[in-house]
Amino acid sequence: MAAATRCAPAPAAAPRPRSRHRLRCRCCEDTLGVPRRRAQASSGAREQEQQHYFPELRPLPYPAPPPRPRRIVLVRHGQSEGNVDEGAYTRVPDPLIGLTTKGHRQAEDCGRRLHRLLSSGHDDDDDYDDWKVYFYVSPYRRTLETLRGVGRAFDARRIAGVREEPRIREQDFGNFQDREKMRVEKEARRRYGRFFYRFPDGESAADVYDRITGFRETLRADIDIGRFQPPSPPGGPTAPEMNLVLVSHGLTLRVFLMRWYKWTVRQFEGLANLDNGGTLVMQTGEGGRYSLLVHHTVDELREFGLTDEMIDDQMWQRTARPGELNYNFITNGPSFFTHFS
Hints:
It contains 13 helices and 6 strands. It has about 350 residues and is of the alpha/beta class. Pfam families: His_Phos_1 (PF00300).
């Protein structure tokens, strides 16, 4: 009988060589477009890399921060068709309301005033790049037309850039407006409170505050990283003096100031509207913070609606440094508590 044959076991598969290329997870910081070298990095290289992305980890003393824009100028649009005829809102969408002939003149006058302000202390003939302006503008027709009128006062070499920013648009009153119904709504807003009253299908000033908060954080981040005014290289030319101009709407600009300076709802509701084509200037003081009292007088700020407490804070802002806190203003004790003697 033939011997039974057995199948020889198959030889064990040789281990597959490990690929030197591994799939790596990339965190959101990699999307900035700056390649990050992780593999075989020395501890010193890793520390430098961390300090690049996280400035707070840099050893003291910190390197000098990028220069801040010297001014943030708030501009309200010129006189619009809706300012002279509220019936225009019943026929034309709010974003398409344009300027009147007077509004166009106000925009050009505003541009000339801005040019005088931004060029003060500079010689256009000698300092080609000594100062520049960067514009933010609401996407509404009346603000875009105001921007074009303002821009007539500036040469192309003075304009660093323009960004259309929907977050600084007008308060939304709810699509096409019924004139009589809107009159009733505005009376209800007067009784309810200007900040919290929400128009049907529209916004309250509190809603505007929420989107302005996001814009303010974007603006602060851009200022802090030097997006508008990068530091000049050692031995290179001095960076130009940068100025930011926000072309927007009356309530939106008041909400922007409220958010920037941490004013209360009651303080906001005491503010007046800027005139059409009017401006308000936030300018860096001795320490580098933005204060309304660097350019404006106390009487001008009182007329705008600032209280004594708010003006005292602006005086502090005029000499304070970024990162410092005005504890006397932030605690605001007497405004909230009544049991102090």
